[in-house]
Amino acid sequence: MRQLKNILYAVAASAFLFVNSAHAQAMWVDYSWKVEPQNEKKFISAVEKFTQSETFSTFPGKMWFVVHTANGPNPTTHSFAVVYEKVEDFEATFQDLANSDEFDRFRKALNAAAEPVDEVVYTHVKGYGGHPIDATTYQVSVMAVSNPAGYLGAIDNLMGNSIMKNLPGGFDIWQIVAGGPPGASHIVVFANNSFAESMNFNIESASDPSFVRDFSALGKYRTILGSSWTTSPVKYGSAELDSIR
């Protein structure tokens, strides 16, 4: 995995840019893959085998196995969202895996079944709403944020609208510290129980003048660069996010 040796330096550098998080060390490492349909069973089998191994039994974080439903020209079809509550957990795991024969076999099995696309590191900024433990659908917006403090203030103001009490699920803001699309600085991940649930709320909120006003104000601080829809049929470790929010 090409960029892992540089990740810790990137995380340290991001501290100068990080905004308003009591858990500034919480991090998410995302590994994305392009899997051809004929290799999907082989790819999933490699994941299942490794997650049942002795090496994985000591894994201290959370991992979402993600299927990409719609993401434009991005060739990614599957990914692993690996979340650690602190950088020290990531560093210790990285060192353990470097000496693990089981992990070495896992990497070789993945490379035989799929093509690696990208590795991206995020640090958690802030979460809003309730993150459903059993959430299966996620919408991701990729952004270039020009004023992080101003953006968070505008989000706080938006959340004050009464219609936001009907927000299905919740959303979390993450800062990109290594990898990612050119020009992108943050992403927002919306978690809920179905795409329909999210779209119905979008329709409802679009008719509320106060919401439209405050949502439009976000444009002063961020530019949306793209979006994607994903599902997560399998999760490893606790799926709650309260411990990192």
Structure description:
This protein folds into 2 domains: 4-122, Alpha-Beta Plaits; 126-230, Alpha-Beta Plaits (2-Layer Sandwich), CATH 3.30.70.100. The protein is globular and about 55 Å long. α2 packs antiparallel against α5 and α6 (148-159) packs antiparallel against α8 (209-217). It has 245 residues and is an alpha+beta fold. 34% of the residues lie in helices and 32% in strands. A hairpin with a 7-residue loop joins β2 and β3. The longest helix has 13 residues, at 101-113. The protein has helices at residues 4-14, 40-51, 54-57, 87-98, 101-113, 148-159, 195-205, 209-217; strands at 27-34, 62-70, 78-84, 115-129, 137-145, 170-178, 186-192, 222-236. It contains 8 helices and 8 strands. The protein has an 8-stranded antiparallel barrel with strand order 1-3-2-8-5-7-6-4, surrounded by 5 helices.
Q: What's the main sheet like?
A: 8 strands, antiparallel, barrel
Radius of gyration: 18 Å
Shape: globular
Number of domains: 2
CATH architecture of the largest domain: 2-Layer Sandwich
Spatial strand order of the main sheet:
1-3-2-8-5-7-6-4
CATH class membership of the largest domain: Alpha Beta
The level of helicity is 25-40%
Mean of the pLDDT scores? Answer: 89
Task: Spell out the helices and strands N to C.
Answer: HEHHEEHHEEHEEHHE
CATH topology title of the largest domain: Alpha-Beta Plaits
The number of helical runs is: 8
Low-confidence blocks of residues? 1-24
> Tally of extended strands?
8
Helix/strand class: alpha+beta
What fraction strand?
Answer: 25-35%
- Span of the ends, CA to CA: 28 Å
